[in-house]
Design brief:
12 helices, 231 residues, globular, mainly alpha
């Protein structure tokens, strides 16, 4: 992690431990989230002034219910999907590091808090760039090998962006279709695997992906094989 931070620079570096390997380490993401929120406020302030005032990174999040009520009143379904992803990012950014770590470890069996943060951040950054007509939404993400954890985030981000831009789609069906398409499994095999080692080794999914019951497709037994005869 330290080597990657030195290479990309502290201002460009984020760290979210989505597996048990970094269970007790402190995440690094708040500056990036706050920058994204400021960009959002600058773009949407005229359209949703009260909502932007509540989301401003310089203010505390005092009433989550009132914030959610404002989001529920948004008529544009894509904007509603955007702010439904940005709101939990705001909540995580104002929470203490120890509290975020506690939430991640407490819910890791049924959800993946840090994976949600990564997914929502990349989705919102992509959507905002599209709205602003800019092409500065690139986010490079990787784990040590660029295989299992990277593959899971790719899968979650793909589904999130598709559903956010097409709110009529059923998220469960979308994630199921993505898993059955085998795209992320193939990429994972190419990035950090070996010939025949198809798919990813198990990484904790978030609740939406769990609802799609895609573990069998994403984490096949072949991902564990290390000695595969090729003759």
């Amino acid at each position: 992690m330290e080597q990657t931070e030195r290479i990309v620079g502290e201002s460009s570096f984020m760290y979210l431990p989505i597996s048990a390997v970094g269970a007790l380490t402190s995440p690094k993401f708040k500056d990036h989230v706050n920058k994204l929120i400021k960009e959002t406020v600058g773009f949407y302030n005229t359209t949703y002034p009260k909502l932007c005032e509540s989301l401003n990174p310089d203010t505390l999040l005092e009433n989550k219910e009132a914030l959610q009520a404002q989001i529920n009143d948004i008529k544009d379904l894509q904007d509603k999907a955007y702010f439904n992803r940005l709101s939990p990012l705001k909540q995580s950014a104002v929470s203490a590091d120890w509290k975020n770590t506690y939430t991640q470890n407490k819910n890791i069996i049924t959800d993946n808090y840090y994976a949600n943060i990564a997914t929502n951040y990349i989705t919102c950054k992509t959507m905002l760039a599209e709205r602003r007509g800019k092409s500065d939404a690139s986010v490079l993400f990787s784990c040590k090998s660029g295989k299992d954890r990277t593959g899971v985030i790719s899968y979650l981000v793909d589904g999130s962006i598709i559903c956010a831009n097409n709110p009529a789609l059923n998220p469960t069906a979308t994630y199921k279709a993505l898993a059955c398409a085998s795209h992320v499994q193939i990429l994972a095999s190419l990035n950090g695997g070996m010939p025949g080692r198809f798919g990813m080794k198990p990484v904790s999914l978030n609740q939406i992906a769990r609802d799609a019951q895609t573990s069998g497709q994403l984490f096949p037994r072949t991902a564990h094989w290390t000695n595969i005869p090729l003759n």
